[in-house]
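ERR on first pass: missing label on line 2. Operator R.T. fixed the label and resubmitted. Corrected input:
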Amino acid sequence: MQTQHAEAPSGRTAPAVELRGLTKRYGSIVACDDVHLTVPQGEIHGLLGQNGAGKSTLVKMLLGLVSRDAGQILLGGRSVEIPDPLAAAELGIGMVHQHFSLVNELTVWENVTLGEPGRPDPARTKALVRSIGERYGLTVDPDVRVEELSTGERQRVEIIKCLRRDPNLLILDEPTSVLTLAESRELFSVLRRVVQDEGRTVILISHKLDEILDATDHVTIMRSGRVVAQRATCDTDERELAREMVGRELSKWVAASALGDLDRLVDPSHSTDAAMLDRTESIDEDRFPVRLRITDAYLSEEGRPQLQGLSLELRAGEITGLAGIEGNGQRALGDVLSSLIPLDSGTVEVDGVALPTGRPGVMHRAGIGVIPEDRHQSGCVLDMSVAENLVMSTVNSVATRGMVSRSRIRANAERLIEQFEISTPSPDTPMRQLSGGNQQKVVLARELSLDPKILVAAYPTRGLDVGAIEYMTQQLHAAANRGIAVLLISTELEEILTLSHHIAVIHRGAIVGRMRRVDVDAERLGMMMGGQAA
Amino acid sequence: MSDTATRPAPPAPPKSTGVAVTTAIWWRRALPMAALYAVSLGIALTLAALLVMMTGASPWSAVEALYEGSLASPAAIGLSLDKAAPLLIVALGTCIAARAGLFNIGQEGQLLIGAAVFTTIALFMPGPGPLVLIVALIGGALGGAFWAGIAAVLYFWRGIPVVITTLLLVYISAQVVFYSVSQSWWLQEHLPTGGVMAPQSDLLPEDRWLPHFGEYPGLNFASTIVIALVLTVIVTVMLRRSTWGFRLRMLGMNRSAARRAGVSALVFGGTALLLSGAFAGFAGAAMVGGGNHRMQPGISENSGWDGLLVALVARENPVLAVPVAIFFGMLRAGGGFLASTGVPRYIVDVVTAILVLAVVFPPAFRLYQRQIATRRQAKALAAATSGAAA
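pass 2 clean. output:
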């Protein structure tokens, strides 16, 4: 039925969107190069590509956020001009952005009515929120404040904000990057309803291959600003998509992880990949010294227990994956290891020396490098330059008698930019202007350049594309090979299984189970993460 | 390893092709702004003129008086510099606190306490004049730092906002200072019996005054302005170049990242707040030592507030604070002269305030105008396109 729909386009009606030769240049960089794209009415169209492939620029032209250098946009067969976002809204184009634009202190209905002209009408808006909720299965209480909602529910609010304007074309940018698996499935069923029952059109931007395969009718793959392939989703597979997106074969190891191929990861006999076999060798427990030892850590924040007797050991040269559902104390653990908050009780030892928790810079000086969960919050300073961000914690090393040497900051930056392949116009560019993947590289480069004993990587690949994930994966692997004790905090099992020697499961602020990578049993792991005794 | 070519750098802003283009763009931006300043100042001057006329004086003679009081003679220029110096010192301290993300608005109180401490030491400490002077100046700075320190303690210990504590401490300081000059055991002046005791201190012995350059009819000014300019250089270099300034900036822009990197909000933020208090206290000390030579409750003439204003107008940039402080100093010097021509003092204050508003207004208006314009443009285009598409 879907396929029929997809294979019988535009016979009677003009396509919902048609782009003819759209081109956008930024200086010498061509962000979009002669892009042709046709999306028929009533389908979900996937737009796949790595960060910087031109997806965002393309969509920004559709939304009137960026003006095009050449080409034509046709909506329903008519050529249109879209000079700004308001015009896009008038033309029936709605977008759900990757990062939410909600006011946390306001209620759901207030957020929905925000930006509307005229006096807000609470009763009408609330009724509207409820009716849209019922129609699409986007139930959310209009009177609840947004800060009390889960991430999935917040996204529902964003979608409601969009749907209430009755758009013909709905664009979603990486909508699942913040969602759990169940929430993602729910989202896709909502999208299916929007498309099938009401004949709207959806463009789904993603770099996750499995969801493109699950949710879309057609897929367009972009690379370096060009459309490199267009496929009917039913005629393609993960391998082909990955190859087209990256432009070459990925290592099987990374590909399996990126594709979410859990079976292949769990059972190494399915693979002959050398890297994988290496990972599954049994490791002698006592071969490596313990670098970090956390004993009986307790921590409460605003009356809510975050850590409840957590004990954990990290050994040199090993990657320990901390598996668990988000919100079970991972953030608190990361914050403690960043010296952001003190423990209520318990100890943190590095090489057998107990450290005072919560005192600024102590963890860092003891040799704990951290790639934090939210790089914008504590990983970098967006308004300082790339070069400054790279020396942030070691500013004394580029200073003489208390005075910072600009040339040494620059030299350090140039060295790291080259070594870590950070793509930035110059070392003096503000951090804010870098792409997410490159910001993450800056954080990684800084932490690794300090030669840490321990590296804590919290969700290091979140929001990154396959190429950047592969890079990050290799870097973490290399760090462990150099003898660094690595703690990988992640909610994505594939990522943990790809990289870890050991897996510890966190639940309600405590480690509820440990196992060696070779002994992993996906079912048991899942039960432990869910808090079931296993 | 991923192919970097597939991930181009984020778009760099288009580089200017030549000097001519840049200059043209600069003019296109600068001209409306200049016009805006002209209009804004024009309106302010008209308003001021109307106000002055209401008091029965001629506006033109008022302008002449302003000019004569601030620029016309070397002595007037000296007076402008004297008035500008404490404002600049206060503003420098404000810049430091702002860099750490803390908004100290209690400079007026810190300045008064600094002045009182200075006077106390200068009057009571025995010893050679210059030594006493130096000790008293340092004491004044410490007094201001102590006053800001109360706010710092409340903030870091109990989380009470600095804006509130520093502001309220201004009122307490005014009471403390008034008390000090009305107690005979403390600062109140000692007169032969029978004299009317005003709430003010004795005149300082002359060897405890700040050095003064020049003689009256010619260019003459207290050394405060020299100290202020030296401090400007030091503060600028420290903020821009030192590791301390680097860390302070980090703290101001992202507390969590700073903390992770070992920058303690308590140590660095606290120091910044104490320093801003010390600068205000030092300004107060210099006002007694360099100008009044005795403590009076009204000695500050709102220098603390105006110094804060200087920092705001200069957008917390210590270098920009120099011209702004001098402009404010000129208004103060000219205003004093204007008052002596018979225009009531409060009118002078109102006129000064109008002129300050006129200077602050154009950038704000420009921003607002730009927002309105984009919004209107967007609406019009949206309407046009939807008409075409429908």
